[in-house]
Amino acid sequence: MKRSQILFVLVGILLTFLLYRLPMVVVDNEEQPLAQDGNDLGSDFSAEGDSHNSSLGEEDLKVIENLMAEMEGEPDNENFVIFADSIAKVYEAGGKIDSAAYFYSLIAEKVPELANWEKAGNAYYEAFSFSMDDSKTRRMAEKTRQYLGRVLDTQPDRLDLKTKVAMTYVSSQNPMQGITMLREILEEDPVNEEALFNMGILSMQSGQYKRAVERFEQLVANHPDNIQGQFYLGVSLFESNQKKRAREQLLSLKEKTDDPQILSGIDNYLDRL
After folding, report:
1. Cα distances (Å, whole numbers) of residue 110 to 29, 90, 116
2. How far apart are CA 256 and CA 46, in angstroms?
3. Residue 67: CB partners within 8 Å, gap ≥ 6?
4. d(CA 272, CA 84)
5. Stretch 22-44: mean pLDDT, rounded?
6. Using 50, 70 and 90 to split pLDDT, how confident is the model at 32?
7. Which of 2, 10, 154, 241 has the highest count of CB atoms within 10 angstroms of its CB?
8. Mean pLDDT of the chain
9. For the chain, which residues make up each domain, given as ranges?
C-alpha cells in the first residue's frame, strides 16, 4: 500500500502522509465485546498509543476509567450511548482518534442509526488518514467502509462519503476500485471538490503533473477558497516545467494565506524557480 514519498520531502509539509501512503498507479489515462479491564477493547482501541500526537493526562485517564465503569453492563441504551460518547470525546480531544472511533462504533452497534454509522465511519476515516502503520491502516479502512457503506446503502447520493470510501480503496491492494469510484463521482458531479482534489493528488503521486494541473485548475476555478488546491496547482505547474505560470500562481497564493506551512512551501519552490 505505502510506496514512497515523492513530494515535499525537503519541506516536510502539507499532506505528506497522503502522498506517502498512496500506491504508484496511473490514474488518468483515459462486533467485539467490551472487556472488563479496558486493555482488550478490540483492535481499534488504543490505551497508550495512537496515530496522532496524543496528550491524555492522568485526569483524562481517570475520567475515562470512571466512565467505562459506568458504561460496562449498562442495560439502558440511552445511558450507554451517553457514557460511550463521553469517552470518545475525551479520546478525541487528546488526539487518540482510533480509540474515539472504537467507542463511536460501540454506539453505532448499540443504536444502529444513520447518524451513528456516519459518525463512526468518519472517525475511522480520520484515523485511517493519519495511520502510518500498514496493518492498522487496513483495519481503519475496513471499518470506514463498514460504517460509511451502511449510510451509502440508504443514501447513495452522499458523494462526500463515497469519496472517503474511494480513498480507502486507493490505499489498498485494489487501488483501481477507488479510482473508478472517484471517476464515477466526477461523472455525476464534474466539479466535486473532494474528488477533484484527490484525483489531482493521485496524478501528482504517479508523476502525471500535466494531468494534475488540469485537475487543480478545474478545482480552483470552481472552489477558489481551496488553498491546498491553489498550492498544489503551483507545485504541479512547477513539476510540469511551466515555471512562469508556477511563479505567478505561487506569488498570487502568497497574498491569500497566512498559513506558515503553506508559506514555507511557497518560499521553497520560489527559491527553486
Report:
1. 45, 20, 9
2. 40
3. 83, 86, 87, 90
4. 51
5. 44
6. very low
7. 2
8. 84
9. 1-30+178-273, 31-156
Average pLDDT over every residue of 127-147: 94
What pLDDT sits at residue 255?
A: 95
- The residue with greater pLDDT, 25 or 205, is 205
Range list of H helices, 44-174: 58-71, 77-93, 97-110, 114-130, 134-154, 159-170
Residue 235 exposed, middle or buried by CB count within 10 Å (0-12, 13-18, 19+): buried
Classify residue 119 by burial, with Cβ atoms within 10 Å: 0-12, 13-18, 19+. Answer: buried
pLDDT for res 56: 83
Measured torsion, CA atoms of residues 124, 128, 131, 136, in degrees rounded to the nearest 10? 80
Contact (Cβ atoms closer than 8 angstroms) between residue 185 and residue 164: no
pLDDT band at residue 28, thresholds of 50, 70 and 90? low
Under a CB-based contact definition with an 8 Å cutoff, are residues 107 and 117 in contact? no
Checking phi first, is residue 207 left (phi over 0); if not, alpha (psi -120 to 50) or beta? Answer: left
Same topology for domains 1-30+178-273 and 31-156, yes or no? yes
Residue 64 confidence (pLDDT) above 90: yes
> 95, exposed or middle or buried, with CB in 10 Å at 0-12, 13-18, 19+?
middle
Question: In the CATH scheme, what architecture does the domain 1-30+178-273 have?
Answer: Alpha Horseshoe (1.25)
Q: Which fold has domain 31-156?
A: 1.25.40
